[in-house]
């Protein structure tokens, strides 16, 4: 949560996401817990189990949370959901990369700043075409170079979601210049809680999140794509792709890319996808990109209705 320095203060949240405790001993930040995971996890699980007592802990409501890892060492992602790529590139009349169905496209796209769950998203110029993108990510422990997809799950320590904010017009410019995605990614906003795969239970199967990511703009639902459908590559494959040439250090965040389903009845995980479908169906895009004053909310909802990681709520702010 917020406070305690640039890396925040580590807290443990009850299973019903209503109460939290600061561990009485051990790591003081999330990164410290990952650096010493083998020892820290037992202590943190003990604090978590103690919160079964409803009289313990402080209320989550009213608490101010920072990003779970305010200063991440490494953010990288792959394109797991190819319907996302097909729609946004199709809307621009661009072809997909060769062999895009055979091997995940992976890339590093900036790290800090990591925005808190409730944050203002800067928009210096509305022609930059601001968009939201719900993404599932995992936080790894130390994963050596050569880690295979089969070995990757043992290195996944925590799971979360983020709003992978994008300036679409700048992204197109960077790709056409052949540069990496940097200026088009001003930061990411994170849900307040990270959860271990074991704690997710049936919501985490075969390293995929069984949940719908509900995305709304100004209270209007734009989509609720499911993270466990229509994927071409899983997180273990993406981790294996990254570790072909380098190790991953503890605290690395590895994302799935924008959640997207082939069935448009699930709605859309970003505005660019919705506009791409509008162009393909009618020849013109109708839905506008985000403007100053717009509020975006993103939440991962499990099959039993649980909000798995808490709410992301971002308000677009014009920068003069």
From TrEMBL:
Write out the GO MF terms: hydrolase activity
In what residue span(s) does the Fumarylacetoacetase-like C-terminal domain sit? 75-315
What span is annotated as the signal peptide, if there is one?
none
Give the record's keywords alphabetically.
Hydrolase
Indicate the transmembrane segments per the record: none
**For the Fumarylacetoacetase N-terminal domain, which residue ranges apply?**
4-71
Sorted alphabetically, which InterPro entries does this protein's record hold? FAA_hydro_N, Fumarylacetoacetase-like_C, Fumarylacetoacetase_C_sf
Q: Which domain of life is it from?
A: Bacteria
Recorded protein name is Fumarylacetoacetate hydrolase
- Coding gene? uptA
């Amino acid at each position: 949560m917020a406070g305690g320095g640039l890396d925040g203060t580590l807290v443990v949240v009850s299973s019903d996401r209503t109460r939290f405790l600061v561990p009485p001993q051990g790591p003081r930040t999330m990164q410290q817990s990952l650096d010493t995971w083998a020892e820290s996890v037992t202590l943190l699980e003990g604090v978590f189990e103690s919160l079964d007592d409803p009289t313990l802990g402080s209320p989550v409501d009213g608490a101010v949370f920072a990003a779970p890892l305010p200063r991440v060492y490494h953010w990288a992602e792959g394109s797991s959901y190819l319907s996302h790529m097909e729609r946004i590139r199709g809307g621009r009349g661009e072809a997909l990369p060769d062999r895009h169905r055979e091997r995940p496209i992976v890339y590093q796209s900036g790290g800090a700043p990591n925005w808190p769950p409730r944050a203002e998203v800067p928009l210096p110029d509305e022609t930059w075409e601001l968009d939201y993108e719900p993404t599932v990510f995992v936080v790894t422990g130390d994963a050596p170079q050569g880690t295979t997809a089969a070995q990757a799950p043992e290195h996944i320590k925590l799971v979360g979601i983020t709003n992978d904010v994008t300036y679409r017009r700048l992204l197109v410019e960077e790709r056409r210049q052949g540069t990496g995605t940097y200026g088009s990614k001003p930061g990411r906003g994170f849900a307040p809680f990270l959860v271990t795969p074991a704690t997710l239970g049936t919501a985490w199967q075969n390293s995929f999140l069984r949940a719908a990511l509900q995305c709304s703009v100004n209270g209007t639902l734009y989509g609720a794509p499911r993270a466990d459908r229509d994927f071409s590559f899983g997180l273990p494959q993406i981790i294996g792709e990254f570790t072909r040439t380098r190790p991953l250090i503890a605290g690395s965040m590895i994302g799935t890319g924008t959640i997207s389903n082939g069935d448009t009845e699930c709605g859309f995980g970003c505005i660019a996808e919705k506009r791409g479908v509008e162009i393909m169906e009618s020849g013109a895009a109708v839905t506008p990109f985000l403007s100053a004053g717009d509020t975006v909310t993103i939440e991962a909802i499990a099959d039993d209705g649980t909000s798995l990681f808490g709410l992301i709520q971002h308000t677009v702010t014009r920068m003069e």
